[in-house]
What does this fold into?
Amino acid sequence: MFEVIWENLRTKNPLVHCITNYVTVNDCANILLACGGSPIMADDAAEVEDITSICSGLNINIGTLNVGTVESMGKAGKRANKLGHPVVLDPVGVGASALRTRTTFDLLEQIQFTVIRGNSSEIKTVAQGSGTTKGVDANIMDATTDDNLDKVILYAKALSQKTGAVIAITGAIDIVADSNKAYVIRNGHPMMSKITGTGCMLSAVIAAACAANPEHVLDATATAVCAMGLCGEAAYQKVLETNGGTATFRVALIDAMSQLDGKTLERGANIESR
It folds into this structure.
């Protein structure tokens, strides 16, 4: 299944509208090109509905909010819903400020999201209405571990049931769940947390995978998460080979994504279903 999903992404070349943060916008565009999608970055309220209309998917990321982008997110999301396009929400840093938290819940009321992807603290805040973060990073107390894995799966399924969205909780152990089924994914490398934007990039790839496979959203999301993790593993090997550092890792991550094929993904996916 994962090989087919990845090859669909490669061949269908979905155009993905990203309203994302300006810290990682360039990396999000490049990772979309690398995985087989096409990016378009547009966040002015005067054009977002038109742009969303010509795309196959929408990625909303609240990392650098302002009054204008909040309006744009709502307008684009509603248009995507009307057109039946998949919509991904990345609630970056929700819980860190009143604006981020209020915006997240306003968007959840206005828009039917296909996937909600965040770190453990962000998803906990979405689930409970409040939470704690370390800036835009997860609180270590919220981390998913083997000891609390079953509990995290249960609340991911419950949040999916509540929101109607696939829930992706990413970290050292990744959880991708709908209300009935969960995937536990153990691909990746700790160095992924040492560069800015791996989560933002992943949300963009998820949007592309879902746009190319709209009938298999859960599996498409899990495929994207596995792919990013595998590319992180490959990038770390490149760092070792070249005695590089975090900048080497960043470039190597995008390189690995551009070279990943479905068969390699299927073989390398460290995934189980629950």
Q: What stands out?
A: The two ends are 17 Å apart (CA to CA). The chain is about 55% helix and 15% strand. The mean pLDDT is 94. The longest strand covers residues 15-19.
